[in-house]
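Methods — Computational structure assignment.
A single polypeptide chain was analysed. Its primary sequence is given first, followed by the predicted tertiary structure written as structure tokens.
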Amino acid sequence: MINITVEDRIGNRQDLDVPEDVGLNLMEVLKAYEYDIQATCGGMGICATCHIEVLKGAENLPDCNDNELDTLDTLPDADNNSRLACQIRPNEDMEGLVIKIKALQEV
């Protein structure tokens, strides 16, 4: 179990206990904690509805693959700290990760 901090769209932060050994990606973890993540593509990295900004710990994440980079390139608010939560599988190196949810909420 690792601990990550999530900042929602209005700036509220919550510490989450995240299992790193059950095969969930970060988008699935956020949905399990009832964050409003649409995940329209089901985690294929093509809808960008799980767009996050990494505030701390980016150096411990795996590099973006080409598919993730292509999708991030379509977002007007993406920057060098942007990632897709569905493309990140929590592991022990991510202890202390701090992220901010940037994707739009469902209406």
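Note: The longest helix spans residues 26-32.
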